[in-house]
From TrEMBL:
Similarity section: Belongs to the aldehyde dehydrogenase family.
Top-level taxon: Eukaryota
Keywords noted in UniProt: NAD, Oxidoreductase
EC annotation from Swiss-Prot or TrEMBL: 1.2.1.3
Name of a matching Pfam family: Aldedh
Organism in which the protein naturally occurs: Cucumis melo (Muskmelon)
Protein name (Swiss-Prot/TrEMBL): Aldehyde dehydrogenase family 7 member A1
Reactions the enzyme catalyzes: an aldehyde + NAD(+) + H2O = a carboxylate + NADH + 2 H(+)
Subunit field text: Homotetramer.
PROSITE patterns: ALDEHYDE_DEHYDR_GLU (PS00687)
Residues at the catalytic site: 265
Alphabetized GO MF terms: aldehyde dehydrogenase (NAD+) activity
Aldehyde dehydrogenase domain sequence ranges: 35-488
Length: 507
């Protein structure tokens, strides 16, 4: 049985009706369970995938370990050129890959294409970085001595990604890990295996064209057992994990037990604060994108809206008006702003969440119901609720926005900082004293602290990540590359004497 006519474009990116889900030692295989990938807009099967077995994993890791010895000796600018070619290959298939992201994950087509564009941008960033992996010269207190810092590859970086950004998060990690001289082992989300395979085929083609070992980039479709194997594997010095705080904590504990390093991108519970002097129209547009975009399934989705009491009703009324205009439907159709939740379980969690919200005093202003259809559609929802309600402290991965009022900036900052998570935050104001209070030591405690823009839509040039239960990891830009390398402090004595540091005399 071949692909259905509507999915025919998948053949342009190397996919068929049944696909092997492991790329190990430069070859495709799969000896694990056969799973189906479904379209969340109608829950119909798109194609089948043969997942990895534990034997496939071990074979892949043995080959990857050997490939690491070769890859780390390739000069960094040459590694950068390989990543440049990956970016070019992505450009050639941008629209097909973006369409696949939209089809399999459920986000609207502009967001699907934007996600693939984000990897292209990361490739460009990493190409430049490949010539800037600079160490330092440090003044020595001892005569005829020089101190310097050297940065060397870790060897292998494990990347475990989530369904909501099924390929962009790989790009944040893999592009930098590769130019830093590391091989990459990727386990994509179990519910987006076609994206994992399509992305891997593209990277594999570049490696093959350059006569490089395919094992430099090793990937697996599979469930929790493959993720656990990566977390336990001493051959993988760094594991990057994106997902829930609960699972992330277990991954961290497993990796810590073997003295490995973790890079965690976990839950978000992000707030937008709107002050009394804010540009209300700008704020409303921002909240719409932040709360409704990706059907509320971004880790940077705005989940809490804090409105100054003097403008509370005005902002809320305008927001309700724009919510009424949101087009819900097939994410591949032009004009759709809200696609389906990713799985039928996600829709059930939305229903459970609404019941809990009501039981804790939440008042539904608009939305609050599932939409009867073949797919996993729900209504974008606004809730008036107390910031002290327990449900507000948790992340409901759906388009549900909690609205609350405040009197002072101090109170707004306290509410913003009162949740366990600390990923993204934003304030709308024109006053410099508020801006610098918000971004300073007594302001937002998040890793991303914005002013007059939404909580989501981060650029790749800055380090992405958060504090507290968000995990503390940083990916993409700035100096995030340092996490993918080991630092050596080197002292060289080029004289004939042996002066000791701190003026110590010994013997």
């Amino acid at each position: 049985m071949g692909l259905s006519k509507e999915y025919g474009f998948l053949s342009e990116i190397g996919l068929g009706s049944r696909n092997l889900g492991c790329y190990v030692n430069g070859a495709w295989k799969g000896n694990g369970p056969v799973v189906s990938s479904s379209n969340p807009a109608n829950n119909q099967v798109i194609a089948e995938v043969v997942e990895a077995s534990t034997q496939d994993y071990e074979e892949g890791m043995q080959a990857c370990s050997e490939a690491a010895k070769i890859w780390m000796q390739v000069p960094a600018p040459k590694r950068g050129d390989i990543v440049r070619q990956i970016g070019d290959a992505l450009r050639a298939k941008l629209h097909q890959l973006g369409r696949l992201v939209s089809l399999e994950m459920g986000k609207i087509l502009p967001e699907g294409i934007g996600e693939v564009q984000e990897i292209i941008d990361m490739c460009d960033f990493s190409v430049g970085l490949s010539r800037q992996l600079n160490g330092s010269i440090i003044p020595s207190e001892r005569p005829n001595h020089i101190m310097m810092e050297m940065w060397n590859p870790l060897g292998i970086v494990g990347v475990i990604t989530a369904f909501n950004f099924p390929c962009a998060v790989l790009g944040w990690n893999a592009c930098i890990a590769l130019v830093c001289g590391n091989c990459v082992v990727w386990k994509g989300a179990p519910t987006t295996p076609l994206i994992t395979i399509a992305m891997t085929k593209l990277v594999a083609g570049v490696l093959e064209k350059n006569n490089l070992p395919g094992a430099i980039f090793t990937s697996f479709c599979g469930g929790a057992e493959i993720g656990q194997a990566i977390a336990k594997d001493r051959r993988i010095p760094l594991v990057s994990f994106t997902g829930s705080s609960k699972v992330g904590l277990m991954v961290q504990q497993t990796v810590n037990e073997r003295y490995g390093k973790c890079l965690l991108e976990l839950s978000g519970n992000n707030a937008i604060v709107v002050m009394d002097d804010a540009d209300i129209q700008l704020a409303v547009r921002s909240v719409l994108f932040a709360a409704v975009g990706t059907a509320g399934q971004r880790c940077t989705t705005c989940r809490r809206l804090l409105l100054h009491e003097s403008i509370y009703q005005k902002v809320l009324d305008q927001l309700v008006d724009v919510y009424k205009q949101v087009k819900i439907g097939d994410p591949l159709e032009k004009g759709t702003l809200l696609g389906p939740l990713h799985t039928s379980d996600s829709r059930k969690n939305f229903e459970k969440g609404i019941e809990i919200i009501k039981s804790q005093g939440g008042k539904i202003v608009i939305g609050g119901s599932v939409i009867e259809s073949e797919g996993n559609f729900v209504e974008p929802t606004i809730v008036e609720i107390s910031p002290n309600a327990n449900v507000v402290k948790e992340e409901l991965f759906a388009p549900v926005l909690y609205v609350m009022k405040f009197k002072t900036l101090k109170e707004a900052i306290e509410i913003n900082n009162s949740v366990p998570q600390g990923l993204s935050s934003s304030i709308f104001t024109r006053r410099p004293e508020i801006i610098f209070k918000w971004t300073g030591p007594h302001g937002s405690d998040c890793g991303i602290v914005n002013v007059n823009i939404p909580t989501n839509g981060a650029e790749i040039g800055g380090a992405f990540g958060g504090e507290k239960a968000t995990g503390g990891g940083r990916e993409a830009g700035s100096d995030s590359w340092k996490q993918y390398m080991r630092r050596s402090t080197c002292t060289i004595n080029y004289g004939n004497e042996l002066p000791l540091a701190q003026g110590i005399n010994f013997g």
